[in-house]
Fold this sequence. Notes:
The structure holds two protein chains of two kinds.
Chain A: H1 17-21, H2 26-54, H3 65-84, H4 87-100, H5 109-131, H6 154-181, H7 194-226, H8 239-273, H9 280-293, H10 309-337, H11 346-369, H12 371-377, H13 381-411, H14 417-444, H15 458-488
Chain B: H1 17-52, H2 54-61, H3 66-92, H4 95-126, H5 141-177, H6 187-212
Amino acid sequence: MEPTDKRKHYLNADYGIRSWLLTLDHKRIALLYLISITLMFLLGSLFAVLIRLELLTPAGDFVQADTYNKLFTMHGIVMIFFFLVPSIPAVFGNFLLPLMIGARDLAFPRLNLMSWYVYMVGAAFTMWAVLTGGVDTGWTFYTPYSTTASHSNVMATAIGIFITGFSSILTGLNFIVTIHTMRAPGLTWFRLPLFVWAHYATSLIMILGTPVIAITIFLVGVERAFHLGIFDPALGGDPILFQHLFWFYSHPAVYIMILPSMGVVSEIITCFARRRIFGYGFIAASSLAIAIFGFLVWGHHMFTSTQSVYAALIFSVLSFAVAIPSAVKVFNWTATLYGGSISFQAPMLFALGFIGLFTIGGLTGLFLAALGLDVHVHDTYFVVAHFHYIMVGGALMGYLGAVHFWWPKITGRMYSEWAARVSAVLVFVGFNLTFFPQFVLGYLGMPRRYHAYPDEFQVLNVMSTTGASILGVGYMVPLCYLIWSLWRGAVAAPNPWRATGLEWQTPSPPPTENFARTPVVTEEAYAYPLKEAELV
Amino acid sequence: MSNVAAHSHVAHQFDDAAQQRRAVTLGMWVFLVTELMMFGGLFTAYVLYRSSFPDAFAAASHHLDATLGAANTLVLLGSSLTMALAVRSSQLGSRGGTVAGLLATIVLGCAFLGVKAYEYAHKFEEGLVPGPHFHFPGAEANHAELFFSLYFAMTGLHALHMVVGAGVLAVLTVMAARGRFSADYHNPVEIGGLYWHFVDIVWIYLFPLLYLLGRH
C-alpha cells in the first residue's frame, strides 16, 4: 500500500498494531469499524445462506425447526445490531463528518475510540452466544419467547445487544456535538452537505431511542435472572409492554439504518448528474421529519397484538404520514436527475438502485400501514420482503454506493470500474429475484419463521434461493476487487469524481490533521457544474 | 499532535477554549437526554402498572420508610447546594472553595447511599426482595412484587448513577486540589455539576412516586 510519492497521510503516519488500537484519529477508527462490520456482515450472510438452503424444498430436510429458529434469529441480530445500525454512521459518518465540515476530528476522539471497543465487547458476547449454541427467540426478543419459553443463550445475546447499544449512543452524541460546534468558518447550517443533515437526524434517533432498548433489554435480563414478572402475565406483568418498549426503539432504528443511506444518495446523485440538488431545504427538513415521525408510529407493528382500535387507527394514519418526507426525497432526487448530464459510474448505479428499491420498499410499507391489509399479511413473507427492500435494497445499496464513492478518498486507490459496474448489476438483479417472489409468497399466505412449507410455494422459494445465490456473488465480487485495489489499484487523485464538498479538497488519503489549513466555505453545497478553475 | 494550542487544556481538535467549552457542555446535555430516555422506559413501566394495580401498589408503598426517604431527599438536595457552591468557587478561581464544595458533595452522596443500603438491607430481612423468596403479607402479592421489582430497578439504577457520580467528583476533587482549574478553565467542574444535579432531579421524581403516592 506504499504510495509512490511518500507523502505523509493518516495511513502511513504511524505503523504497528498499537497505532491502530490506541488511535484517536476518526479516520482510523472508521477503518476499525469497517473491518469489524464486514466480518459481522459475512457471519450474518452465512446464516442467510443456510436459511435459503433449507427453504429450497418444502420439507424440513436440511435443518429442523429448532435449528431454523436459531438461524433466522442470529441472522437478524447480527445483521441489524452489528451491521446495519453501525454501518454507514460508524464507518462513513466517522470518516467523513469531520472532513465534510472542515474539522480536524470529531468533538470527542476518545469517546469515539471507546465506542468501537464497546461495540467489540458487545459483539464478543454475541459471538460467544452464537458459538455456544445460539439463540432462538427471533431478533425481536418478544416475551415470553425470551423469558420463560427459551432455553437458548438469551442472556449472553441480550448482554451483547445492551452493550452495543451504548456504542451507538456514544456515536450519536459525538456527531450531534461535532455538527453543532465544529463547523468551519462560513459553513452555515444550510450550506452543510445533505449527508451531514442525514447523520444529524440519525444521531437524534440514536440518542433518543437506543437508551430505551437498553433499559428494555435490561428488564428482560433481570426478569430471566431473578424470575421476576415484569413481562409475565402469570405474575401480573404485561408482555405487550415489552412490545411497546421494544418497538419504540426498533421502529426508529429502521430510520437509523435508512437515513444515512439517503444522505449518501444525495451526495452521489448530484455528483454524477452534475446538477445542484433540487429542493435542498426540503431534503434536509425531510430527514428531521422522518426522525420525528419515526418515533410516533411504533404501534403499526402491533396491529394484531390486542391494541385498541383507536390506537391502531392513529398509528396507521401516522405511518402513512411517514411516506410524505420519504416521497419528498425520492421526488427531489428524481428532479435532480432531470436534465442532468448523467454518467453511470459504479457509485451512481448503486444510488439509482437505491431509489428504485427504496421506492418499492416504501410503497409496500403503506400496504402494511393499512389496518385491514396488515391483518392479512401480518407475519408473512410479505413483511419479510418489505423490510428487506428497505434494509437491504435501501440501506445496504446506499452503503455499497458509499463504499464505491469514497473508496478512493479512504484508501487513495481506484478500483476496477468495470468489475464494480458488474457487481452493481448483479446485486440489483439478484436482490429483486430473491425478494420480489417473497411479496407473492406472503400475499398467498406463507408465514415467516417456518422451516417447512406446503408444496405449492416451492417454485417461488426456488426463485428466491436462486436470486440469493446471485446476490451472494454480487457481494463477494466487490470484496475481491476492493482488496485487490489496495495493492494494484491506480493511485487516486484528490477529487476523482470532480465532486463538490470539503472532503474532496484534501489529498487522498487525507493527512492525519485532515486539512493543511482550516477551509473557509463561501458557497452553498452542490455548486455544480464545477468551474474548471476549481478542479484540483 | 502537531497543532496543540498554547493552552494545554485545549484538545487538539478544538480551535480555542471557547469552542471546547461549547462542545463539552453540549455533550453533557445530550448525554443527560439519553439518561432521561433510559429512566423514561422505567417510568413508563411504573405508570402502566401503577394505573393497572393501584391498590396493590399503594399497599406495597406502605412498606417503604417515608421518613428515611424524606431524609435522603434533604441530604441529596443539600448535596446539590454544595455542588453548586463548588461550581461557583471554581468559576471564581477559588481552589479551596472548590475542593471543599466537592468533598462536601461526596460526603452527602455517600450518606445518601448509606441510608439506601440500610433500606435495602431492611427489605431483604422483610422478604420484600422480588424473586423466589419474595413474601408479601397481604392481598395481590404478585402485583406487590411488581412494585418492588420496579422499586429496586429504579432506585438501583439511580444508586448506580450516584456511585458513578461520586467517582467522577472524586477525580474532580483531586484535579482541583492539584490546581488544574482556574477562573479561565473550570469546565469539567461545571459539567460534573450538571450530571450531579440530573441524578438529584431523578430522585426528586422517584421519591414521591415510590414513597408518597397513595399514602394516607
